[in-house]
Specification:
This protein is mainly beta and 154 residues long. It has a single domain, classed as OB fold (Dihydrolipoamide Acetyltransferase, E2P) (Beta Barrel), CATH 2.40.50. A 5-stranded antiparallel beta sheet has the order 3-2-1-4-5, with helices on one face. A hairpin with an 8-residue loop joins strand 2 and strand 3. The N and C termini lie far apart (48 Å).
């Protein structure tokens, strides 16, 4: 049990605990945090990236991307390590990276999709969640790609 008697808690803070689902599209974002932890079977490692949208009406919204960087499935591991390599290349950071903090705060584009999943609280109830489908470079304001809101070439 945590003793909060000496902690100054703000009674006016808004309630939290739910998450926001953003519409599918491309968003300018930064990697704002991460953590690494073992897979459920204990044989692999997951790198969890916290990606924060930094522009537009959804600025401040975060999306979690989980990369199976060490996995019994060679295909899953290759996909995850390939994604990390892509992020490093976009941000001009040499791969393999030794410390992920060098990824933080640097702008990149993320292609976000909406996926359905079944609630673990209500059987049969389907909910929406965001998933990062791809990472890309931030395009210059005058380029052709910047004029199209849903660039799919990257």
């Amino acid at each position: 049990m945590a003793d909060l008697s000496g902690v100054s808690l703000n009674p006016d803070v808004p309630e939290s605990g739910s998450f926001t689902v953003v519409p599918e599209g491309n968003y300018k974002a930064v990697i704002a945090g991460d953590k690494i932890y073992p897979t459920k079977d204990g044989k692999g490692r997951i790198l969890e990236l916290t990606v924060q949208i930094v522009e537009g009406p959804h600025a401040g919204t975060t999306i979690v991307d989980r990369l199976n960087i060490i996995n019994a499935s060679q295909q899953a591991q290759n996909i995850a390590q390939g994604t990390l390599k892509r992020i490093c290349n976009i941000l001009s950071i040499p791969f393999p990276v030794q410390n992920t903090s060098v990824l933080f705060g640097k702008p990149l584009m993320v292609k976000v999709v909406v996926e359905k999943f079944e609630s673990n609280k209500e059987v049969g109830k389907m909910l929406d969640s965001n998933k990062i489908k791809n990472y890309g470079p931030v395009v210059a304001a005058g380029s052709l790609a910047a004029q199209k809101p849903n660039v799919t070439s990257w």
